[in-house]
């Protein structure tokens, strides 16, 4: 179905017609979901690049991490979904039924829908660790950039779920003020809206953590903990799609992220005293300052050089011009 009729009776909003197709190029439909996801990526990526200088890394460092993260995020998002998927009707994992070829094609069919945000995060984290090692930069600095830009992408991206009428939960009470009715069906929890609102909170708190960082990766740990907590709660209201027995896997993963982040925070603050030099950007600035001071000292000792000579400062490609004159200057020989 390309169009859906959506209402929020408790908010006084009725009969919003949502068309999944934005426009056509020839016979090819261009979907709103794809446009919204593209906008969310551009916004998040652009904002992440703006933070590079404050972290001591280059825009090339961020770009390389993002490119690899896109690939691994897609792989792990799909992998997480198909491994833990349970059909709501049969209670079985339908992705692993049929011939080997059918199973393989079903598992890689991203275009048919089905992915997990926790899989996205896992793939992105692995990508950053790999690329940070290659680029010889602390992974924590890139993670901190992600902590304040990923929520932006998530907030915008959830509008795509709204247009597609997806990411909704179980039925609500008939008088629940936030209930969402799709095509006249009973009201359900608008989980996309819950997550949008929570991601705004996460974005604000991640920025607070970013400004008060005491170690590389601190604001990312805050993001993981806060997002995991919110997502764990939201998953309670979701249908039974990722179950292991009677346990909702995504709930467990979300709350586990919160607990692990909290433990890391407590340990870091208990074991380590505040030290600005734990931040990569401060170490770089200190190293640059030491080079400048060393060069100034070298240049000051260059006064004894003969006229017309220049002294090359250590660790610097610029010559220190000899500003003193020879004792014999102006004399005829």
Give the topology:
Blueprint: E1 3-8, E2 13-19, E3 21-25, E4 28-31, H1 32-50, H2 52-55, H3 59-84, H4 100-108, H5 117-135, H6 139-164, E5 181-182, H7 191-211, H8 218-236, E6 243-244, E7 247-248, H9 249-271, H10 280-300, E8 310-312, E9 319-321
Antiparallel strand pairs: 1-2, 1-5, 3-4, 6-7, 8-9
Could you please describe the fold and organization of this structure?
With 333 residues, the protein is mainly α. The protein folds into 2 domains: 276 residues, no CATH class; 40 residues, no CATH class. Strand 1 and strand 2 form a beta hairpin.
Notable features of this structure?
333 residues, mainly alpha, 3-stranded antiparallel β-sheet, 10 helices, 56% helix, disordered C terminus
Helix count equals 10
Q: How would you state the average pLDDT, rounded?
A: 84
Instruction: Work out the number of β strands.
Output: 9
DSSP strand content? 5-15%
From the alpha carbons, calculate the radius of gyration and give it in angstroms.
28 Å
Envelope shape: elongated
Structural class: mainly alpha
Topology order in helix (H) and strand (E) letters? EEEEHHHHHHEHHEEHHEE
